[in-house]
Design goal:
Elements (H helix, E strand, L loop, with lengths): L1 H6 L3 E5 L7 E2 H14 L9 H23 L5 H14 L1 H10 L1 E3 L1 H14 L1 H17 L1
Antiparallel strand pairs: 1-2, 1-3
């Protein structure tokens, strides 16, 4: 979770416009969740971009819900929730990056890595336990 929260305070995207400043993750999270409803004229007739931006913004609340309920879920059900969330999270920001000529920065990659580590921590720890059990028997 530390990596996930750290990503909000690092630069997440950089605009390709010369002289522009990179944006921190917390600002990207806020804009992606609330911007599609305020001023739709900024999308210049691109119908899929507001939808992609909004789904990118939904990733954070959904991640927190899946992570919280993941404490109670085990096995296949948790894996399906985690995989669905990651598959929804990864492609939609890239659509926005393309339309807005933005480049992802370290905060974006840590955001994805943090979510993946939290969502799949059960699998990582069970693999370690299985390896330890195998090594202990030898």
């Amino acid at each position: 979770m530390f990596i996930y929260f750290l990503s909000f305070f690092l630069f997440a995207v950089k605009d390709s416009v010369p002289g522009s400043h990179p944006l921190p993750g917390y600002l990207c999270a806020y804009v992606s969740l609330f911007s599609p409803f305020h001023d739709t004229s900024i999308f210049h007739g691109r119908q899929f971009e507001p939808f992609s931006l909004f789904l990118s913004g939904l990733a954070n609340p959904l991640f927190l819900i899946v992570a919280a309920f993941g404490c109670y879920q085990r096995g296949k059900r948790r894996s399906i929730s985690a995989l669905t969330l990651l598959l929804m999270t990864v492609p939609f920001p890239w659509i926005v990056f393309h339309y807005e000529s933005m480049q992802p920065r370290e905060g974006y990659f840590l955001w994805i890595a943090g979510m993946a580590l939290v969502l799949f921590s059960e699998h990582l720890s069970s693999d370690r336990r299985n390896d330890s059990a195998v090594l202990g028997r030898q």
